[in-house]
User: Which sequence fits this backbone?
């Protein structure tokens, strides 16, 4: 395993986004890359956003502090928000008809389940 | 003497009791029932799960593994790549392959 780790390095961070993020392995697509970037950023800014939100909504704090926190929260770029991420198919990159527990779209799910890639999943016959 | 229930925060003694209770059970003493929105902080963080959706970034690809185990008498076959190469070779034999890449600028016609 150590030999594998020597050869395999995390891919170079991409320059096309405002902040460098690593590229995922597996199916790649412009939209997958964009969503991956948003996911990394949302994870990175999660604590900051939560703290700001807490300060802004907390009625026990002075009004000035609360407004300041709200302004900072709205000034954050859109890619830091959790609601910007969308589940995409890991196999084909489509965003529609995703079967969430398996992270694949319905057609890819059918192909993979038929090949026996999901243990315990089999075709219903009755 | 009315028998209605007095809220905890009304009488000074009960106020003290509430304060002590909060101290013991480590809850926030909030006599005015202000919205502190502590539930925002109470929720578990989900960034780790969200950012790992597409799998780890340093997971080895089939090509990297094939390169690692390659020797003179042993070669790993990547099925998809093998199929692609065989298909391209067949097309080339029949003269139906992709055209070769042109060298140099191709804007000689545009200049006229």
Assistant:
């Amino acid at each position: 395993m150590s030999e594998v780790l020597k050869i395999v390095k995390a891919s170079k961070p991409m320059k096309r986004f405002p902040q460098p993020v690593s590229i995922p392995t597996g199916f790649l697509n412009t939209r997958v890359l964009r969503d991956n970037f948003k996911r990394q950023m949302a994870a990175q800014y999660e604590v900051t956003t939560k703290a700001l939100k807490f300060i802004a909504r907390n009625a026990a704090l002075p009004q000035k502090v609360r407004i300041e926190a709200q302004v900072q929260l709205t000034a954050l770029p859109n890619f830091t928000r959790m609601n910007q991420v969308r589940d995409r198919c890991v196999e084909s990159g489509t965003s529609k008809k995703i079967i969430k527990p398996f992270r694949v779209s319905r057609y890819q799910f059918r192909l993979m389940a038929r090949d026996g890639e999901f243990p315990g999943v089999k075709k219903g016959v009755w | 003497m009315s028998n209605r229930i007095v809220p905890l925060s009304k009488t000074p003694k009960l106020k003290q009791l509430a304060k002590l209770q909060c101290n013991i059970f480590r809850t926030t003493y909030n006599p005015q029932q202000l919205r502190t929105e502590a539930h925002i902080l109470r929720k578990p963080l989900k960034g780790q799960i969200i950012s790992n959706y597409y799998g780890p970034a340093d997971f080895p690809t089939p090509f990297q593994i094939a390169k690692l185990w390659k020797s003179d008498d042993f070669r790993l076959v990547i099925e998809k790549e093998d199929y692609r190469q065989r298909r391209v070779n067949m097309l080339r034999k029949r003269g139906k392959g992709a055209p070769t890449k042109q060298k140099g600028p191709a804007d000689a016609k545009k200049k006229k």
Q: What stands out?
A: Chain B has a mean pLDDT of 83. The helical segments of chain B are 12-25, 39-42, 47-51, 62-69, 79-93.
